[in-house]
Amino acid sequence: MIKESSRITQGQLFFYMIQAQVGIGIMSLPHDVHAVAKGGAWISILIGGVVVQLAILVMWALCKRFPNLTMFEYLPKIFGKWIGGFFNFAYIIFFILMATLVLVLFESLINKWVFPLTPRWAVLALIVMTSVYLVIESLRTITRFYVFVSVLIVLIVLIALNAFTIADFTYMFPITEAGWGKIFLGSNKVIVSLLGFEMLLVVYPFVEGKADGKLKAASAGNAFTTLLYSFLVFIALIVFSPMEMAMIPEPIPYMLKAFSFRVVERLDLLFLSIWTVIVATSYMNYLFLAANGFGHYFHRGNHRTAVYYTAIISYILALIPQSPDGIEFLTQIVSWASYAFVYGLPVLFLLISLVFRKREKGKTA
Amino acid sequence: MLFHTNDLKHRTVTFQGKQLLILYLESMSDTERIEKEILFPIVHEKEGDVQDVVTDAHVEKQEDLRTAVDKLVQGQAVIILEGDTVCYVVDTRTSHNRGIEEPDNERVVRGAHNGFIENLTVNLYQLRARIENRHLVVRYYTVGKETKTKIAIIYMENLANPDLIQEVDKRIRSISTDTILNPGFIQEFMEDDPWSPFPQSLNTERPDRAMAHLMEGRVVLLSEGDPTALIMPVTLFAFYQSPDDFHTRWWVGTFVRMIRFASFLLAFQLPAIYIAVVSFHAEVLPVDLVYTIKASLDKVPYPPILEAFLMELALELIREAGIRLPSPVGQTIGIVGGLVMGDAVVRAGLVSYTMVIVVALTAISSFVVPSNEMSTSIRFLRFPLMIAASMFGFVGIVFGTMAVLIHLTKLTSFGTPYFAPAAPMRLKDMKDTILRMPIWKMNQRPHDPHPQRKKQEDDSSRRWKKDDQGKQ
């Protein structure tokens, strides 16, 4: 059972969803999707959002059957102790890998944009230590922080709005240049960028209220993130010509670098500072998920101690891939794994629990 | 029983034909009262019951000699009659009160100009006079095993959350120390997180401030011998409120609040941002400004962080010296330290002009906070942030700020979140935090002390307006 003092409200779930989803993807998403879908990239994002919504529905249907249990608690109920435990540890490894990926991508971007000379371990230590400091707290405290920093997303939108001063709408036409097939394929990139919502598997029982309300909050969060992403991609599309787009790996800060105001000459640094916080929340999310899994197995459900070594594992893992190829390799592994863990397995779990009529005993919420 | 002390006086008279001994501490008792209320009647009457003869309002029979000695130490007179098993304790305490003046460190432009003083009874009177309500409850405690300091907690019985009262009671009872020098001791014994740089209970010398918090369902703690009241639980934002805000028009009040928050950010971040900009991200500034700053920096051999530390330390020195010195000399220190040194240090090429500007601005901003305690915390916090900025530039500032925000989110004051209503976010309570909405809009008490009644206004406060419109 979840302690009363760590429960969160549905409003908080909405913000948790946003903070978990919005993250590292913002930077390179326009470039990646544009490479496939051309002018229709922003449509790809919307399609990706719908796919994610379907996944959220599956997870919700699954969690609804075990309203007071986290995934780590109910998988053994569906599959028995051993197979369930196997799945759980696979998930813990997946969460740690996701956390590592966030760290690696974050570091490589900081390296590229702000500090080419600062050693990797130092920047990584900063984000890991700060995150640990928050994640050792209860989910309620973590979420309070998430809600507070969500103000920054408004700032991001405000900064990005400046793009309309140099926009050229002809760049994005014809929208269906690449064809609908490619636009659908483009959403492939998006459903990886929108990751983070799988926290629902673990966080669901922490949320107060009825199942319908939880679904609404989670969906609203996903809708918000999807719209934010497609807004940013849209802006990148109208600022850069298709030729430029193909050459710029991180269009959003690149675009901001071009703006200059009387007071602040380089807006991209401001953007990167805000973005740093948003990335940290993504990392914190995975740290919490993995630590929660370890906590369930080794610390009687208390994730506090597990946070320390989970963070150290992800820190050490993040130090390994030094070259761009290494990063690319890790990205590939994680994105394939995410298809299985986020989009595939929950469906399987749901089907099995439906077929064998497994659900939490006692009253159903 | 009482170790020989020179201020112990005794007087023997004959009463009922027996010896009668009056003991009192000269330093604590009012000799005039002893003469008028004890000696005169006793010598006059010669016969009867002691309790009837003594004309003081407060005469108590005491069988335990040990307690009688304790009473003696408090300034009460002890009467011992020959051949009697009991003694009589008469309240003859003297009080030397400072006048009720406005506290120096919490001045307001408009509003009440009285403050708490060292005498607990007078302080309680000041609160009771403001809230003439039978629900106002005072509870006495004695803390400090040796000093036996008397403290009182005050709350509104019908507003304050019973759990909170119980928690405060529990924490006071668990204090077991010899010395309670001032409320700061109690504060540290009772705080949720004593390691935090942020004070978790508000201390004030203003009765009007204490009263406002009482009416929000909080608990006020007063202690004998100190003019500071502790208010708990509080939020970070309570430190940024001043009674003055409510004496001005609400537009002005809101404006002043915003200035204070800007000052919070400036005091906390400005030196760090400056260091980050000049050492890492000069490109953030417009080109013309970069040239000026570079020209000024070129003469300085030290890295910006050293410059900053030098100036900040100088400033803290001037501040500290200014407090310790008598006020006429204090002003001289300000002028010599501020003007002469500031100028000379730049001419000598130790510090750049821009750094002097930054440090001066930071200093002024940090003094804007209405609470001295909070202003010290903020000034203290900017040093780690400066170090972070000198090592990691903007990234360091972001993580440093994030760590402070996380700390604030985690912090609780008597179990209620310290950073409310920002985290947990409560838009309803924002009316009296960063903003100062019109008073008739603030019809609900803030949520953080969990008051028993949320509503504090009926809808009728401005009913006259609707009534007037109806007549037209």
Automatic annotation (TrEMBL), chain A:
TM segment ranges: 12-29, 41-62, 82-106, 118-136, 145-167, 187-207, 227-249, 269-294, 306-324, 336-356
Subcellular location(s) of the protein: Membrane
Record InterPro entries: Spore_GerAB
Membrane topology: Multi-pass membrane protein
Keywords per UniProt: Germination, Membrane, Transmembrane, Transmembrane helix, Transport
Short name of one Pfam family: Spore_permease
Source taxon at top rank: Bacteria
Family membership noted in the UniProt record: Belongs to the amino acid-polyamine-organocation (APC) superfamily. Spore germination protein (SGP) (TC 2.A.3.9) family.
Matching PANTHER family: SPORE GERMINATION PROTEIN A2
Name this protein carries in UniProt: GerAB/ArcD/ProY family transporter
